[in-house]
Amino acid sequence: MSLAAVRRNREAVVSGNTANTWSAPAASGALDAAVRVPGSKSITNRAYVLAALSEGPTLVREPLDSRDTRLMLGALSALGASSETSGDGVLVQPLRPEGDTEVSVTLGNAGTVTRFTPALAGLGSRPVVFDGDEAIRRRPIAPLLRALVELGLDIEDEGRGAPPFTVRGHGGVAGGKVELDSSASSQFLSALLLAGPSFTSGVTVRLVGDAPPSEPHIAMTLDLLRRFGAVPERSGREFHVPATRLSLPAYAVEPDLSTAAPFAVAAAVAGGSVRIEGWPEHTTQPGDWLRGLLEELGQRAELDASGLTITGSGGFPGARLDLHEVGELTPVVAALLCLADGPSVISGVAHLRGHETDRLAALATELSGLGAGVAETEDGLAITPAPLHGGVFHTYDDHRLVMAAAVLGLRVPGVEIENPATVGKTFPGFADAWQAMLS
Ligand SMILES: O=C(O)C1=C[C@@H](OP(=O)(O)O)[C@@H](O)[C@H](O)C1
Ligand SMILES: C=C(OP(=O)(O)O)C(=O)O
Question: Where does the chain bind phosphoenolpyruvate (predicted)?
Answer without folding.
Answer: 41, 111, 139, 187, 359, 400, 425
